[in-house]
Amino acid sequence: MTKTRAGGVTNFDAWKHAYAARAENLAVSEVRALFSVVSRPEVVSLAGGMPDVAALDVNLIDKAYASLMANRRNYALQYGGGQGDLRLREQIQEIMALEGIHGSVDDITVTTGSQHALELISDLFLDQGDVVLVEAPSYVGAVGIFRHKEAQIEHVFTDHDGISPEALEETAERLLSEGKRIKILYLVPNFANPSGVTLTAERRIQVLEICKRYGILIVEDNPYGQLYFDQKPPKAMRSLDEENIVYLGSFSKILSPGLRVGYVLAPPAIREKLVLANESAILSPASFAQMLVSEYLSVADWQQQIESFRQLYKAKRDAAMQAVEQYLPKVATTRPAGGFFLWLTLPEGLNSKEMLPLAVTELVAYTPGTAFYGDGRGQENIRVCFSHPTADNVKVGIERLSRVVNQQIELIETFGKVD
Amino acid sequence: MTKTRAGGVTNFDAWKHAYAARAENLAVSEVRALFSVVSRPEVVSLAGGMPDVAALDVNLIDKAYASLMANRRNYALQYGGGQGDLRLREQIQEIMALEGIHGSVDDITVTTGSQHALELISDLFLDQGDVVLVEAPSYVGAVGIFRHKEAQIEHVFTDHDGISPEALEETAERLLSEGKRIKILYLVPNFANPSGVTLTAERRIQVLEICKRYGILIVEDNPYGQLYFDQKPPKAMRSLDEENIVYLGSFSKILSPGLRVGYVLAPPAIREKLVLANESAILSPASFAQMLVSEYLSVADWQQQIESFRQLYKAKRDAAMQAVEQYLPKVATTRPAGGFFLWLTLPEGLNSKEMLPLAVTELVAYTPGTAFYGDGRGQENIRVCFSHPTADNVKVGIERLSRVVNQQIELIETFGKVD
After folding, report:
1. ipTM of the assembly?
2. What pTM was computed for the model?
C-alpha cells in the first residue's frame, strides 16, 4: 500500500474508494479558507462574520463563572440531558419573547451553536435530491450543509425588502411541476447574512401563507434580531405560527461564539426527533457552556450589554456606509438596519473572486459574493463585515478595497472587459 | 391542518411525510431514557456511564479559568478554526504519547466530545447498507450512530481477551461472500464499554493484520486508556499503524464530560475531510472549552489528578467485585483492569430488560445488556457502572440488585422459565 506521510501534503488517499456518496459534497468554504489570511495583523479583515467580543464586559463573565462554580459546579462538569439545561431553556423562552415568540420550554433544544441546529434539522428532513429554497444570496454555512446533504439548492429572488413572495410562489410552482420535493425554506429574516436586508412584516405573512399552502417547512434563522440600530425589526415569523416553523437562535452574537451555544424551537414531533439526533451526534450539549450562559443571563444586565453592542455596531455600520459613499462611488450597497453586513454590487464586468488576491496585496480581505450562492452567481458582489474591526479600520479597509475596485473599473472603462 | 399543542404530548405529526429516510432510525437510547429515574436521589444508579466529577480538584479549574481570562480571553470568546486550537492539539499530542502514539498535530481534529468525532467519521464513510463490525457487546452510543447512518451492524464474538481475531476473519469472509461492503471495525480496546475487557497485545496485531488484508478502516476509541488500575494496558493500536486507523480520544473521563472536548487522529486525507465536516456541522469547536482544557493541562498537575482517579475507580471496582461475589453468587462477571464497567451474565432464563422495573422499585438502576447490541441480544446481561456512586453506594446498589436477581432465580428454579 502506498505510504502517506503523517501531517504532510496529501497526494494519495488510501481510503478514496471507501467514502460515502455524501462525503463528495464537502467543499472548502470560501469564507473559512480566508482564516489564515485574516489572522495576519496588517490585514484589515472585512471577511469573517465575527462579533466584537472585546466589547463584552469581561467582569460579567467573571461573575457568571464565580456563580456557576459556587452553585452548579458538579452539574456543569457532568454529562447533561440531550435537550439541554432546563433553567437555560426557561431563560431562552424570555429572550425569544423579545421577538414576539411564545413557545414552550419543552419545545426548545439547546445545540452546539445554531449551526448544529441547522445541521440536525437538515439531517432529519433532507434526502438526496430534495429541494431547499433559500434567499438570493444566502448564508454560506447553510448552503454548505444543504450541499453536504445532497439537496438541490434553489435561490429565490430577494430585494431590499427580503425574499420576494411572488418569486417564492413561482419557484415553488416550477419545481413542483418538475416533480421535485420541496422540503425547506431557509431564511434569515432580520439583517440577513450576507445581504443585510430585512424581510418586511407584510412579506412575512405572505411567505408563511405560501409555505403553508405548499407544505414547506420554514427554518427561520435569527442570530441578529436583537442587534437592531434604530427600531426593532418586525416580530419573528414564529410569532405568527407554531406549526410550520422551526426557529433558530444563538448566543454567538449577543454574548460569545466561542461558547457554541445556540437553540432551536420546533413543533413537538420534530423536537422529539431533534433531541434524539442531538444525543446521537454529541450525547448532550456542553453543560459547562450552557450553565455559564445561564449564570450570565442571571447575574448580568445582559439587555444593557446588548444595547451597548447595538450602539457599537451602528457606529461601525455608519463608518462603513460613509466609506463606501466616499471611496466607492460606483458601487451599490444595501443599508442594513442591524446586524453585521453590507452587500456591495460592483459595476458590470468586475469579478469579486478574481479580485480578492489583489485586495489581499492591498492588505484588506472580504468575502466574494459567490460564497453565498450554490450556483456560481454572486461574482459581482462583495460581503463587507463591519462588526469585527474598529470603526476606523472599517474605513481603512474600505479605502484599501477601493484602490483595487476603482483600478479595475478604470481598466474596464479603458479597455473593455477582458474574457 | 390538525393542531398540535406546543409542549404537549404529541399524538399527531404534521411533518411525518417529510422526514428523510435516515430519520426513521433514530431511537430512544435505553441508557438515555433512564436519566429521569437516575436523577431521583433515593435511587442508586449503576446505569449512567458518568465519571465522578466531584473528585476533580476544583481549584485546578479555577486556576485554568483565571489563566485563560488573563491570557487568551478574546480568542476563547471568539470563533476559532475548524480543526481546533493549535496549542491544545500540541498538548493532545503529549497525551497520546502516553498510549505509545506518535502523530502529527496537523492530523488531530478537536471535536465536541469523541462522540461527535465518531458521528463525523461515520457520516464520511457509511452509505446505506454498508457494514460496521463491532464487539459483542459494543458501546451503545456507537451502535446508535451506525444505526442512524442506516449501516448494517455486525457483532463479532468477544471474550475476556477482547474481540476474537478468528471470529473477525470468519465474519469478514461471510459478509464479503454475501457481497457486502465492510467499511469500519469499531473497537474500544481498553476497558471496553460495556464489557470492561481489554484487547490483548497479541490480538491487537492480529486484528490490525486482518483489517489491513480486507481493507477495513479501524476506528479505535480509547476514552478509558489512562484509567488503568494496576498496570498500563497494551499500547494503542494506532501506535502500530498510522494508515489504517482512526483514533478517538476524550477529556470526558480524565477531566470533565461537561466541557465536551474530544479529539480524533486520522490519516491526512481523512483528516482533511473531517475538518470540513466539522466546520459544516458546528463551524468550529468551542474555543472557550478547548482553551480551558488547554490552560488546565498547562497549569495543573493533570497526571497526578489522573493518578487519583485511578485509585478512586480501582476502589470502586473492588467494592463492586466484592459485592457481586457476596450478593450475586450465581451471576458471572468480567473483572475489568480499568475503566468504569462490570458486565454481568445472569443465569439462563433471566431477562435484564424485563427485570429493570422491579430493580427500580428496589431503588437501583442499571443498563440492560440489550442496549449494547443492535440485534436484540444481551437479554441475560447487565452493565454495572461503578464509577459515579460512592464505593459504599456501589455495594448498596448491588445488594439491592441481588434481591431482584436472586428472587428471579428462585422463581425459575421452582417453577421453570415462564414464556
Report:
1. 0.95
2. 0.95
